[in-house]
Amino acid sequence: MKLKKAIQLGSRLNPTNINDYASVEVEDLINQIPKDAITQYVLSMIQPIIVYDRENEGELLKTLETYLFSRGRIEDAARALFVHRNTVKFRLSRIEDLLGVDLKSRDIAFKLQFSIKAAKLLLHD
């Protein structure tokens, strides 16, 4: 069963990689949550960023995802995004203002990472 889920989720999310269940375990959990509930949660967490990016051709969501993936290291995020670290700092400040959160909070970082993963799954459905 786990192998089947790994193949199904992996082929949807990252078709060029070979995935084991551990690499898609969180996504599997997200898939078990009713779609309406997960959509509502994602929107409650990151909708202001999505709207801002759409209206301003921005890259706040990409910046946030990269920053979180870089474990909060601005230099690493800047390198991955091919921008100056001050650009990342400015964007993160804008994100904090839009969401009304402190990105240094581990709890907030977890919720945002979860929301971004869930949003990607919703888009792949």
From TrEMBL:
Residues 60-118 form the PucR C-terminal helix-turn-helix domain. InterPro entries: CdaR-like_regulators, PucR_C-HTH_dom, PucR_C-HTH_sf. It comes from the Bacteria. Signal peptide: none annotated. Pfam families: HTH_30. Gene3D superfamilies: PucR C-terminal helix-turn-helix domain (1.10.10.2840). Coiled coil: none annotated. This is Helix-turn-helix domain-containing protein. It comes from Peribacillus frigoritolerans.
